[in-house]
Amino acid sequence: MNFVLQIAHLAMAIEGPEPWVAPLAEVWKEWRGADASFQLTLIADAEPPVTPRPLFQVPFTFTAGVCRQEAPGFVGSIDPVNRQGVLRAHPQAGAEDAAYFVRAACALTALQEGALLFHATAVVHREEAYAFFGLSGSGKTTVARLSRPRPVLNDDLVLLYQQEGRWRVHATPFGLRRHPEVMSAPLRAFLRLRQALEDRLAPLSSTLARVELLANSPVVNADPLRLPQLMALWDRILTEVPAYALYFRKSPDFWEVMDAHFG
Amino acid sequence: MLTLDDRMMPAPGVVTRENDGELIVVIPQRGRFIVLNGTGANIFKLLDGRMTLAQVARHLAETYNVPLERTQQDVLNFATNLYQRGALQMVPLAA
User: Which of A84, A134, B20, B59 has the fewest CB atoms below 10 angstroms from its CB?
Assistant: First the structure.
């Protein structure tokens, strides 16, 4: 079975057994594309032992720019330069494992195309997107919930892509959304989340911003060969988009602080 | 455990970048990101495998006019910390 996943300008043809591809095609139907230059092949292979754990627990390794994931039950490789990826997985692996592999391929392809898959909750407010990021447990999902009824492009992974001279945040299928009719918005600011007893914005040092944004650039930040390119891209983004620390209580009131600052 | 006779160098795959007088040290294999202040950055740059930790300490003590004994302990602590976090590796004695 075939399905073409298209997120902004990134298009990826996914070919594999129906039990893996059909659920993804259904969940990702809003991102159905037509033509793709990247080919991802999923192969059910009973030869490896039964998968002992989910694929997301398998670390990435890199050799000469090719990403590999190898564990009992899985052998995967992604070659973004040659625009192909292959995952051999035990038939007992699930569609969620295939989805995780697709996410990794998207992260690598995005950087290859000058874009970035970024761990963040992106909320659209007054037609601009605010990207809230932080470590696991910092409050990304909470912010998405507290930001009702504003559109949420995604509460886990978004795509940053420069169009017509401005960085935009694009919705992805890799997490929860609200108001799915809103697919992208120009990026206004990055907000590093810190739960606190008050709502306030504070400057985020240039170095800390870079480190934290790097840390939230999945997959590509594990490849030493790609890190210089990744760092240069974040440098470029941060010359155009400001980064702050947002101290917030578990209340929607932080938007008043945001409005006072960003207008 | 490291000693002042050891020579240290960045571990394979470690990537660094200077920013605003600080040094970002990325250890991709471990998913770790370390920020060194100006002093730490200066020490890290000296740990290129050519000097022993004792020689690095002497160089810093002379450059900054600080007591050698204290500098030796600081350099040893610094190198041990970054070694344990995967940013540094020991240079083999034969190298």
Answer: B20
What pLDDT, in 10s, does the model give residues A37-55? 899 999 998 876 676 678 8
Measure CB to CB from residue A208 to each of B14, B31, B35 and give the nearest one.
Answer: B35
- Residue B86, both tokens: 């995967």
Collect all residues of chain B within an 8 Å Cβ-Cβ radius of residue A231.
15, 17, 24
Evaluate whether A252 touches B43 at the Cβ level (below 8 Å): no
Please state whether beta strands A184-195 and A128-133 pair in parallel, antiparallel, or not at all (unpaired).
parallel
Of A234, A227, A3, A218, nearest to A104 by C-alpha is A218
Chain A residue with the nearest C-alpha to that of B28: A222
Task: Specify the DSSP class assigned to residue B7.
Answer: B
Q: B8 by DSSP, 3-state: which?
A: strand
In 3D space, the residue among A48, A45, A42 whose CA is nearest the CA of residue A24 turns out to be: A42
Give one DSSP letter per residue of A177-216, joined into a string.
Answer: -BSTT--EEEEEEEEEEEE-SS-EEEE--HHHHHHHHHHT
CATH superfamily of B8-83: Coenzyme PQQ synthesis protein D (PqqD) (1.10.10.1150)
The pTM for the full model equals 0.91
B interface test, pick of A58, A211, A220, A233 with most B CB neighbours within 10 Å: A211
Q: In A47-163, which ranges are E strands?
A: 61-63, 66-71, 74-79, 84-89, 116-119, 121-125, 128-133, 152-154, 157-163
pLDDT tens-digit series, residues B25-68: 999 988 899 999 999 999 999 999 999 999 999 999 999 999 99
Q: Chain B residues within 8 A (CB-CB) of chain A?
A: 12-15, 17, 19-20, 22, 24, 26, 28-29, 31, 33, 35
Q: Is A223 on the interface with B (CB under 8 A)?
A: yes
The verdict on a CB contact (< 8 Å) between B24 and A208 is no
Q: Are A11 and A40 in contact (CB under 8 A)?
A: no
Considering only CB atoms, which chain B residues are within 8 Å of A221?
26, 28, 31
